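Data availability excerpt. The first of two example chains:
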Amino acid sequence: MAQRDGRHESRRLRRRVNCASSPSIRRFTRHGPCRRFFTRVSNSHLAHSPRIVSYTHHFTSTLASSSSRLFFAQPPPDRTGSRQTESFASFSMLDDVLTPSDAGYDDVLRAHYDGFVVDDPGALPASAHDDVRRAFQTMLENGEFTHDVLQAGQKVSRTFVRRVLLGERGCTYHYQRLRLFAQPWEGREAYDVVRELNERLKERTRRALAAGRHEKSECDYNVTLINYMETVEESEVALKDETMYGLGATSVSWHSDSSLRENSTVAVYHTYAAPKRRDWCVALRALNVECPVLRVPLEDRATYYMCGDFNATHHHAVLTGSSARFSSTHRVGVVAKDTWKYIKKRCIDALRLVPELEGDRVLDAKKIQLLAEVHREVEFQWIRMFHLQGEDHARLHARYWKQRIDELTEAWDRMEMCFRKILSKLKRSSSKTQPPRAYSMMLYAMTTVKELRDEHAKRCSASAYAQVPPSCQPVDLPSYDDTSPLPFELKPVIAFIEEERDARHGSK
């Protein structure tokens, strides 16, 4: 492993104490690289080697003592000279971490990281690079980069990086229970520059795909997530260290990009905001394959590509450098359920049912179900997602998305009014007796909405929102008042449906 600077090494040394007894370490000894190492060693001719016996004994004894230093927390071996040739050397520090200066890097890259391609800065004209840098800087000065607050399971957390999404009109991008709304990448000078970059990268990607086995991979990028990444010193929140391989501070930890078209390529253009030291890196690891991790330095204005199925079969992480960095990650985002065109059609289809459900007919449970599904999707996947990101988000999206969210809110309000009229038809005093299925479907619809509202309110109260400016904190919309068709708190409505159902058809 390449030598680390003093800052990263001191962090690693501080983590030695009491880590051996942690649950994550105990899990590590049962699974993953550790288990694979001992399996391979025990099945090999090296199993009885005095050096291996000593090595394994030292490892197991260190883990047994919470006060001991773990073997992978020791200072890394010097790999600046000749590499070790012993068979067991490839297993030190869990698995090797190779850099382009290491012997064997190219072989490992070809064997296990096929699909990862780096484009030299000279692939694009110098004027294009300058334009892109200026565009990113303009967007930064305009306050367009903001922190996302994500939810994974019950954990709500703020991203270390600031981001903005650009793309084709009406596109959104959904990840970790947050919907990002793309700024249309035309109509503003800075956005036009990004669109031009997108077209150039499409062409460069096609050339890269034609040269490898991923020729059929999609690369018609429809969105780009532009990141602004700060250094350890600049970041408002302490960056996390990568602990499995001792890679130092990360701006983005191990992950695969989500919500992408299957077998699509990702292109990442990279440039430093104010170059001092050009020491950012991307780390790569293969999934379900035993091979070294790669640490790839990122040259200013270079582009790297994850072609074909690479994103699905590998993880990548961004290792923090000592100068602020921009990266533009061009993707083929899924569009089946993530566009304005899609949700508008859903609303039109649902609102066509309103006259029938409000009329003097026996209620059709299937039509209630469709209306309820669209009502939930509009409220929680679009309206609340838009306002969850705060007043600044609405202001920045005033050009395109604000009026469309207002349209969705009007459609949602009509659906709420329709539900109120359905409730009137469920009363015992109504002229017609409604089928039991209608009561059951309305009960399910209202109960589900109540649960989702409770969950949304809990998310909005998470402490992570204290880490973002007040103008980026959630806005409670759509709003309710005395004139609203239904109340925000649906407990009385649910109780009413249950009472009327029992009176008409008996308890179910």
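And the second chain:
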Amino acid sequence: MADVFSLGTYSDDAYASSNGPSKDTGDLRRKYNFGDRVSELNIAQDPFFRFVSKVAKKPTDDPEFKFTERRGSYHKRYAYITAHGADINVSTTGDATVAEGALDQGDTYYFKMGTDYESAGNIGNISGQSTGAIAVGAANTAPQFFLENQIIKINTRAENEGSAFTVPTGYILAKVKGEPTAVSTTHQILKCEIVKGEAAAKDLMWESASAAVSTTYNKTIATDLEPKRCYVVGSAHGQGTGYPSTWKDQPFSTGFGLTQIWKTAMAMDNTTRATVLKYDSNEFARIWREKLIEHKFDIEQSLLFGAQGTVDSVQYTEGAVDFITSYGNIFTGTGMGGTGSKAQDDFLDDMSQFLDPRYNNANATLFMVSTDVYNWLHKLSGYFTANMQKTDLGSSNRFAGRSDFSIGGKKNVFGVDITQIYTPYGVMNVSRNIHLDGTQVKMLAVNMKYCAYRPLVGNGLNRDTAVYVGVQTLENSGVDRRVDLIQTEAGMEWQMPEAHAVWK
């Protein structure tokens, strides 16, 4: 998907008064389709609906729509050691230490390996998300990728460093000999030949089964998990040998969403309609336009705070806050825009984890923030300046400044003002969203590549936003008034929860 924030300044010329909503309410009994044009109204107050309806509109022909997710596996060829030993029984489970001489080049050693993600769908843990947390060695997590002649990198540390050590001092290379031995659906046991050894007694970079590595969702990837992960780092084959074994992943998982029906009515008696007023003579036309804005305002609120389900035969669609809080990345927002412990360095750590290029990127991500956080982010300019790297240009005492963390200018994308904040992990495209003010949510990060606005369209009927003029009139009801109806039926599709985040 292209970078949606590199489209330049959006022009509303195509939606000038001759084509867009106006005071001319049109002929009675006529239906007006406003699916695209309604998003042009009140843009600053409804940035998310504006974005998702422009970037990710995907009609559905079913009010209960299905979709398929696909995750790559090439970056998930890692596992954790849960036991090890000199024979296939791998009886060592409570001690990380490998005795002197056991890891010399050419020695044979056994490792019991488990992962923290399910093989079907490549579904793994998400930062801060206890819902659906996957323990190392849980059912259906046995690593499927280990093959004969693969080389495994295993980090080591000096002996007796204890279970809290996090920084390796070296590593061994172990070559898989023969086919791995499956242990139910939870583990694989690898018979390995040591290719690069350690002469002295060493601790393996692992934690025993009783330690916290068993639940990785509450761990920091870079500092807590990466040192303990054993990665495939290639393979080695003898001359004249045949083709190797192979494997395939199961990258697909499925989900579903529901459409929701929004309705807004405009009613006025005909006496008031016929009365000419000062400043804005046509009161009906004025209120009619405001009702369109009100309708869009309601949709924005639902797309942010809605909760998916069916109650008394009424369907409700899933909002960003509910979806991300339930399934996505969760970071602490305490101190962002107010009192608390959140510091700039902590925020940078959050970005490094959320924008891990193996799982996510900033190019298609919209960061929506409350007003106090919007102000807080702009106040970070002092922090950026203080952390600027300076290079002495010589005796003139001139310096060339370079900053990987800085605030850029504003740009207008689809009519929404976007502030760009440059980080070492990508550009944050930030939009103030007043609907987050006064809530527990400080910031939402929504990857526009993995969500969609799904209006119901099928059998010649378009249920996207439409205005039905004259659903009640004096002519068709005998009641001396006119009623118009604004109606939308659509839902939100949410995929890849690891690509979205909330700070609260």
